[in-house]
Amino acid sequence: MNTYVILRRNGWKTADDLREAAARSTAEGERMPDEVAWIRSYVLAETDGTVGTVCIYQGASPEAIRKHAAAAELPVDEIVKVADTVVVRPDPVPVTV
Amino acid sequence: MWAVPGVVETMSNLLEREECFAVLGSAHRSMLEGRGNLVFVEGEAGVGKTALVRHFCEQHSNGSRLLWGACDALFTPRPLGPILDIVQAGAPELGTLDYGRATPYHVAAAVVRELEERAPTILVVDDVHWADEATLDVLRLVARRLDTLRALLVVTYRGEALDPAHPLRIVLGELTSGPSIQKLHLEPLSAAAVAELAGPQGVDAVELHRVTGGNPFFVSEALASRGEGVPENVRDAVLARAARLSAGAREVLEAVAIATTATDLRLLEALTGTIDARLDECLASGMLVEARDRTVAFRHELARLAVDGSLAPARRVTLHRLALEELAARPQEAHDLARLAHHAEAAGDAEAVLRFAPLAGAGASAVGAHREAAEQFARALRFADGIAPQARGELLELRSRECYLTDQADEAIAALRDAVECYRRRGDRRKEGQALGSLSHILWCPGRGREATQTGREAVALLEQLRPGRELAQAYTTLSFLERQLGDVDASLESGIKAAALAEELADLNALSGALGQLGQSQLAAGLREGTQSLERALAIAEEATSEENVADAYFGLAANAARLREFEVAHPYFEAGIAYCREHGNDLMLLYHLAYLGQAQLEQGLWADASESATLVLRERAVSTLPRTMGLVVLATVRARRGDPDVQPLLEEAWALAEPTGELRRIAPVAGARAELAWLQGDFGAVLEVTDAALRIAVRTGSRRELGELRSWRKRAGADEPFEERIATPYSLQLADDWAAASEAWTTLGCPYEGALALYEANDETVLRRALDESRRLGAHPLATMAARRLRERGAHAIPRGPRPSTRRNPASLTAREVDVLRLVAEGLRNAEIADRLFVSRRTVDHHVSAILRKLGARTRGEAVAEAARLALLEDR
How far apart are CA B576 and CA B554, in angstroms? Predict the structure, then answer.
């Protein structure tokens, strides 16, 4: 499995919509555990008032990422491969799902 | 293996396995609720996989039926061995097949029926790392159907036994995605567990754990041998244990050791004399156990190996000879050919090997166990020094074919060359010519096209000197194919005509369908439409002659050619039929060809998810023929590049490495095109010119219209200002002439939306660029959309939408984005012709969209559609 960054800009109108999407994402991810693994996400405060995310996933391939996104009805703007992870400081706020 | 093992053995195998039992238990419950499951149980030899599964089955014997099949540790196992085990134990559906000829597809269908008829069932297949190819195929096919069956499939294997090329790896890779598949890894025992077992015997548990590594089998053998200190390895432990038996009992052990599979009592008698107390002693000691159907076997394969390894060579040969005599004397229906060939070789009996191994090979081939078949023929050849060149040549040809079917190109070629030599020495020119013809075909597959064509011409030259027969017709057919791959369409046409004419004259249906297949493709390559009729005739004749390979070839020819002409509605049914046919008849190679070309067609139609799936299926397999792999790589790389996804470059590098040495435009041009596309999307115009240079030279030389058009188009986009050939076809010619509007329309009519958007991008018009932007977004072509947006901004355009809008729910009527666009314009009161102008598509396309809209909204008129859309708030700007 490779590690990918997924950009989902302006993906949802409200935080509630995003929460629903997160639930779908988890459910679909459990159906394909050998193809994708959701690591973490940062929720983005977009300038137009919508929410977006930057997601870190492990995936068997870019197609697996897209297959998961299609099943969970999540937008995919861009997929970028992670070459290396550099953690300098821990996240400033606890990350919850 | 159903005997009750000793206490130590039981315990050592079941300690620390609670989690595994929990997983199996929950899978079992799942199955009872109607959701079938597959559980892999993996671990090193002796770690207790079989014991675990056996115990689990015993615990759940109420309420579910048990079917158990095991794979033999034979180097060349009996094809479909585990299935035959199950049939013997009693499985009505499975009993209906003729196992001499059933393909994996049919066997799998029968297994599924068996599981459906008498649910719920636990189906165990033990030691699958030793499975033959046919069994692996059956497993793969059955696993796909599991979630609708009330069955639990448990498969055990040794992970360490799988080298990188082992076929089981591919099956595992294919099977690991899916909700109903789990993998259990069994660990050796912890020091604490070993201490628990060793405690009562007062053995040094720490030392025991260190030496055995916690391997349960080793631990129990070491404890049972009760010697001074701990034996150094499993072999020593087993032999130490055996040493405590009487000499007579050890004779019995040795006899059972050479048998490799369970030994029936009659065989045992033949090997060691009357069955008596010696056997009882072995059973009492626990070294041998009673197995199914009144046979005896070692408790574990490791023990058998240890005893077998300790045999003096002369004694081993004697035992194998006796076993061979006894088994060969049995009635023919009971012959296990693989086993007989094995004993014959171990006994050094050349005559017996030459009698049984070829039969075993033919039998294995007939059921799709080609790997085993190749090995059997190799075995026969090892003992074939004294036989006549004719017979040797035939064996070599048989081996070559099996090697070809199992991705062993070099071995296949070597065997055929050897065969040619045999026939030449014997002066059998007809057979020599035929073997040369086969060789020319096999040489092409790993990409040695020039060598192949040379060999093909040699074959034809030789056979033309004899009275014309089927071999010559086939040689012409192969040559036609080879010449076409190298781009010599005229020569290919000539060879094809000769092939067909001769085959008609000979009234040889098989040869004729093959000949017409190649002739048809050559005719189409030459631009002659009657090629399609030739191909259709080839299909009809192949079906009539039930010539499986020719049917598959004919379907493929029809599908691939329609796809090349971009007649996608014609191509798809042929692809579907061809793929189904190949699957059913186990023609893995042609299946790959179908999938590769289907992927290409799906790519061109903008069906990128489907295209990537087709390509991924191709890339999972390794095949002797590298063309499907090259195409699969190109398709997947292109999908990723167009989407802006990562992992493109490695695919293209591999594709280029496969294509470039062949010198064939058909392989090189697509890779060059894909590399050019990637470079262009990255803005590296210099690279575009660089990567298309070599391919362009070949295209110019061979005059291939389409490849010329594609390559020149990329170069033009990269800024090249080169003259172009008149013969270049539309839509490429339109692009090269700067008529981008017509080009876009032409691409859209052909059903190629991305190419259409690319053509729009070349425009210098704001409205058109917006169309390009919309279309790229709709397709998910992120890089092209970014480029279109950038061009718009550079022209000072305003209000460029930033990206896909968030939506809280899916479009309730499931209108596509394009259909929503059209509907908006309908709501503004435009007629279809006006809409067509506004959107730069043909009137026909708009008619099609409007009728789809009416259908989806359940409306009878445009007015109703607009009203319904308003009601559903479909046209709201979000």
Answer: 13
